[in-house]
Amino acid sequence: MSPAPVHLIDLSGLEKSWVLDLFEEADRLRLVRGTRNAPRPFAGRTAALVFHKPSLRTRVSFTIGMHDLGGDVVELSIAEVSETGRESLPDVARSLSGMCGLIVVRTFAHRIVQTLAEHSSAPVINALTDFSHPCQVLADLYTLKRAGRDVDAINIAWIGDGNNVLHSWLQASHIFDFSLSIAVPDGFEPDGGLFIEAERHSKGGVRRVRDPREAVAGADVVYTDTWTSMGQEKDADWRRVMFAGMTVNESLMALAKPDALFMHCLPAHRGEEVTNEVIDGPQSIVVAQAENRLHLQKGLMVALMRATEVKKRTVRKSAPAPVVPAGA
Ligand code: CP
Ligand code: NVA
Predict the structure, then answer these.
(1) Which atom of ligand 2 is nearest the CA belonging to 164?
(2) Helices and strands (H, E) in the chain, number of each type
(3) Could you confirm whether 265 is annotated as catalytic?
(4) Is 210 helix (H, G, I), strand (E, B) or coil?
(5) Contact partners, residue 241, CB within 8 Å, separation at least 6
(6) Domains and CATH numbers, the chain
(7) Which of 116, 136, 156, 214 sees the fewest Cβ atoms within 10 Å?
(8) Is the Cβ–Cβ distance between 46 and 71 less than 8 Å?
């Protein structure tokens, strides 16, 4: 069994038992939220929140989550943290982790989060990069579990762009046994390496089909996301043309199982990837997905803090005794 992770950069390599424990921690914290029994393990500690892209759900859930756990947050932007800014990323990581109990980063290049994690003694959490969005998919899996679905036995259809959220779903397919059918237009496929690895390792099966109707047929979950992710705004018109026919509407939903759920990480572009009737309809669980970001990430922050403390104790125990200068 691999040691518990101290950072959350991606879902690759995570043990299923660790994720299930995380869901239990999220449940525990959710049930005592706002009561006298709510734990405050982050009292006296601060999380640095670095946002290079806009955010509603992620910013609010990490901020409220830290406050619930007794801690505080400090917000930083591209002016303080960047690859080409006023100081190196390793210096940023070392300085922040000396003062902060946690570093949460939403940025463009995945390597920024990786570099910060390499040089930080505090846990680093990927709050979305161009490559992946692991917190979203952990919270989505938790949402499905809360909705009474067995994530080892369901069929998930992904309709739309082969983007960061899909990448995290492909990584999650190594952990749980759901099947994943993706319908993405040519030229918008997910990362080839991730897809091949998922095809090879997923027990439930991962496949790409051309027709959204084929992906959705018999699905338990229909998931879509914006056709224009943050940073791609200048291509929005062209993307709308390329994704024509990929809208999740009522007639597409009708091909899924009668009790199928509709999921979207939000923000949604209503009338593009999804119609109002579907996103506001009885099968939609998008609001639960948003709320569960809070509970899941509180569990995540607690789990990473615990793993960091265990790691620090282990390092201290195995460190050689300090050399005392003669005559001291
Ligand atoms: N789903 C999600 O990450 O939302 P925000 O971009 O609003 O944080
Ligand atoms: N794919 C979207 C997800 C937003 C939460 C984006 O990167 O903008």
Answers:
(1) 1
(2) 12, 9
(3) yes
(4) coil
(5) none
(6) 16-133+291-311 (3.40.50.1370), 148-284 (3.40.50.1370)
(7) 214
(8) yes
